[in-house]
Amino acid sequence: MDVVEVERIREIITRRGERFLRRIFTEREIAYALSARSPLREERVAARFAAKEAFLKALGHPVPLKEIEIVNDENGRPRVLFRGRPYPLSLSHTRGIAVAVVLIPRPAPGAARQA
Questions:
Q1: CA 115 to chain centroid
Q2: Which of 7, 27, 46, 48 could form a disulfide with 98 if both were Cys (CB 3.0 to 4.6 A apart)?
Q3: Which of 3.90.470.20, 3.40.50.1970, 3.40.190.120, 3.30.450.20 is the CATH number of 2-106?
Q4: Residue ranges per domain, the chain?
């Protein structure tokens, strides 16, 4: 789980603009976020940033943020896409905060030994 203040993201975008976005997000994520007007635009960016941070926490080791992509499935539900595999994700945001919860299912004990 991760929580991000939307105002913090708004300030970073104001100061660093596209440089910040391109360092953290994929082209598809940027296009989705920028397709909305402010303040929804900044809320979308904050929610996706929170999702990437939540995924890193659940994963348990660092990876480049651009390897983690937040996408919407065919029904509009958000998912984390990491190395071609989707992971469940819940996003919520208001004008003030964005929150993300990611679930990385662990294999059942002994599942790796079964073939």
A1: 33
A2: 46
A3: 3.90.470.20
A4: 2-106
